[in-house]
Amino acid sequence: MAGRADGFVGVFDSGVGGISVLRSLVAELPHEDFRFFGDSAHAPYGEKTESQVLELARDIVGRLLDEGAKAIVIACNTATSVAAEVLRAAHPDVPIVGIEPALKPAALAFPHGRVVVMATEVTLRLEKYHELASHWGGSCEVVAVPCPGLAARIERGGLDEPDLTETIRDLVGEWAGRVDAVVLGCTHYPFVRRQIATVLGDGVRFFDGGEGTARRLASRLRETGLLAERGRPGRVELASSLNTPEELALYQRFYELPL
After folding, report:
1. For residues 179 and 98, what is the distance between their CA atoms, to the nearest angstrom?
2. What is the mean pLDDT of the chain?
3. So what's the pLDDT on residue 5?
4. pTM (2 decimals)?
5. SS3 per residue for 213-259
6. What domains are defined for the chain?
7. Taking the CB of the first residue and of the last residue of the chain, which one, N or C, has fewer CB atoms within 10 A?
């Protein structure tokens, strides 16, 4: 069933990472109401099977639509790759917007440079990523770096603790001083942009898909007549499958954290 303009936009991720996308959505569409759901009880999706991710995504989207969502944003690269097309086929009247690694703007900015794509193993394994890399990596050198464990570590907070920087060093340290751009191919990673820069060196440019996703959502809401009335104050709700005061406080800290 088609939504109503006064409904909310449902946004979901495997955990806190999608809050980085949520912030781009709010900046682009300040008059909209957003309800963010982080599935921290099952995080990270990037280390699950494709069938598990699809089942989790179907369940979350079904509940958000039952609660009154007029549109859905999949604020997770892995879930977008696995589930977006299936969800769109199942809900053809609902704008469903996903996110993908921002390889296009990185390749256009550095057509003869070296671009490192940091992402989960699932995202890098799927055909959707390989098509993206093949299309936009024609002139630049694209280096795919799977980052097992990084999203889960970010999920725990404590982003200034030394072990997190060491984890990043173990993953991408070999490229220190040898890379022009980094594509943050998981929505958790923008929260550790500073730590990645510490490892790779000054001058590295970062790209993530949050702003492009926000622009795409705005376009889809406009096309379907679902934009909220301008001038009204939008609201943001944060919820988690780990529904504890501590977890919700962590979500709020991530929402307020400087990027």
Report:
1. 27
2. 95
3. 79
4. 0.93
5. HHHHHHHHHHHCCCCCCCCCCCCEEEEECCCCHHHHHHHHHHHHCCC
6. 8-99+210-256 (3.40.50.1860), 103-207 (3.40.50.1860)
7. N
